[in-house]
Each structure stands twice: as C-alpha cells, then as structure tokens.
Amino acid sequence: QVQFVESGGGLVQPGGSLTLSCVASGFSFSSYPVNWYRQAPGKERELVANITRAGDNTIYPASVHGRFTISRDNVKNMAYLQMRHLKPGDTAVYYCDVPKVVRGQGTQVTVSS
C-alpha cells in the first residue's frame, strides 16, 4: 500500500520549535522529490519546503525561509521538517507529499500561548 504517515505535530508556544516526520511505504521513496505543504482553515494550501531525490537541494518560500529545514533519509524512507522560531501564523495542518504519487493525512501544528 502506497502511503505517507506524518507525526510530530502538536501545540507549541510562539518562538518554539517542532520537528515533523513522515515515513513512506509502498513505493520507491528515493526516486522522488518530496514536498511539505500546509493548509490553515480558510486559506489556500501553501508549499513550505521541497527537497530533491538525493537531498542535495532544497527550496523554501519567503514565509518560512531561514526558520524551516527539510531533510530526508532515503535508507529509512523518511522525510523531516524542522521548524524553528514558530509564529501563530504557522498554525496549520502540515502534509508531506510526493507529486502524483501520495500525500499523507496531515498532522496539526498549533502555535499559541
């Protein structure tokens, strides 16, 4: 079964950190780039990070650049999103995604005092 399963979400205070994880199964994980998206209630889905197949190049939008870091472990079939200096505006459901293959069910991140 092709799937991505995210974990690591939760409630964190502004300025705090969280690391999200995503484990892949049922497909050749190392053959695909990986995206992390987020979607807040009433807002469009936003791409927050992208990493190439080998993990040698990453892309971030300005909204998270310098605060979020995407990484991957092709041996463990896992992708990660390290988030630092979190803001209330980062509150959303976060998804890992391989284009046209699979998207995870999402994990909730809430940034609030």
Counting DSSP E segments of at least 2 residues, the number of strands comes to: 11
- The topology string of helices and strands comes to EEEEEEEEEEE
Report the β-strand fraction as a percent range: over 45%
What is the residue-averaged pLDDT? 96
Rg over CA atoms, rounded to whole Å, is 13 Å
* Biggest beta-sheet profile: 7 strands, mixed
First-residue to last-residue Cα separation:
39 Å
Helix content: under 10%
Helical segment count = 0
List low-confidence stretches: none
Shape descriptor reads globular
- Kindly name the structural category: mainly beta
What does this structure look like?
With 113 residues, this protein is an all-beta fold. 0% of the residues lie in helices and 50% in strands. It contains no helices and eleven strands. The strands form two sheets. Strands 2, 4, 5, 6, 9, 10 and 11 form a seven-stranded mixed beta sheet that branches. Strands 1-3-8-7 form a four-stranded antiparallel beta sheet, with no helix packed on it. A hairpin with a 4-residue loop joins strand 7 (68-73) and strand 8 (78-83). The radius of gyration is 13 Å and the shape is globular.
In a nutshell, what does this entry contain?
This protein is 0% helix and 50% strand. By secondary structure, it is an all-beta fold.
Topology of helices and strands:
Blueprint lengths: L2 E5 L2 E3 L5 E8 L8 E6 L6 E6 L6 E2 L8 E6 L4 E6 L8 E7 L3 E2 L3 E5 L2
Parallel strand pairs: 2-11
Antiparallel strand pairs: 1-3, 3-8, 4-5, 4-9, 5-6, 7-8, 9-10, 9-11
Label this structure with key terms.
single chain, 113 residues, mainly beta, seven-stranded mixed sheet, four-stranded antiparallel sheet, 11 strands, 50% strand
